[in-house]
């Protein structure tokens, strides 16, 4: 009914598609990760990095360093007020109030660091998915040719 050699070719072709799509995922993930890393490097953030490393030019540029910086910013912000509601005490935000302005800036910086963490994590997930697709594609190609070769 089915020609096993044709099935083997179809499986191998699906493997080629997996290789191509996986390669595209890895490429896109690397480009996006590099884009985020270069963006935060440009800001020259050193929060949470050892002074000796800072002296060597080290800045926040990894997911771990960005998360550590965000946690430090969170702690600093909470030293001003535990919550935004507590800061305002039922009033509206006053941009002329130095305490409220500092809190808002800390909140913005903290959110930017957590956004970088999320973006790098997503890029790394895309890269890992692409690598899995490449491995699966290679396996399908091997299986397809093995089926074709052994088929009658």
Describe this entry's structure for a reader:
This protein has 152 residues and is mainly alpha-helical. The chain has one domain. It is 79% helix and 0% strand. The chain contains 5 helices and no strands. Helix 1 runs antiparallel to helix 5 and helix 3 runs antiparallel to helix 5. The longest helix has 53 residues. The protein is elongated, with a radius of gyration of 25 Å. The two termini are 12 Å apart. 19% of the residues are buried.
Shape: elongated
Unreliable stretches: none
In total, how many domains does the architecture comprise?
1
Average predicted local confidence, pLDDT: 94
Task: Give the gist of this structure.
The chain is mostly helical and 152 residues long. The chain contains five helices and no strands.
For the structure shown, list the relevant keywords.
152 residues; mainly alpha; 5 helices; 79% helix; elongated
Topology overview:
Layout lengths: L3 H39 L8 H5 L7 H18 L3 H5 L9 H53 L2
Helix pairs in contact: 1-5, 3-5
């Amino acid at each position: 009914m089915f020609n096993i050699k044709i099935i083997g070719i179809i499986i191998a072709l699906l493997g080629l598609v997996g290789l191509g799509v996986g390669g595209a995922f890895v490429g896109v993930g690397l480009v996006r990760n590099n884009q985020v890393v270069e963006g935060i490097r440009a800001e020259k953030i050193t929060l949470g990095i050892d002074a000796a490393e800072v002296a060597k030019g080290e800045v926040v540029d990894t997911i771990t360093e960005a998360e550590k910086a965000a946690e430090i910013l969170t702690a600093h912000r909470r030293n001003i007020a535990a919550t935004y509601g507590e800061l305002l005490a039922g009033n509206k935000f006053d941009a002329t109030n130095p305490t409220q302005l500092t809190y808002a800036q800390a909140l913005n910086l903290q959110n930017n660091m957590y956004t970088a963490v999320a973006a790098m994590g997503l890029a790394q997930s895309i890269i890992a998915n692409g690598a899995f697709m490449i491995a699966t594609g290679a396996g399908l190609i091997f299986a397809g040719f093995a089926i074709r070769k052994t088929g009658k």
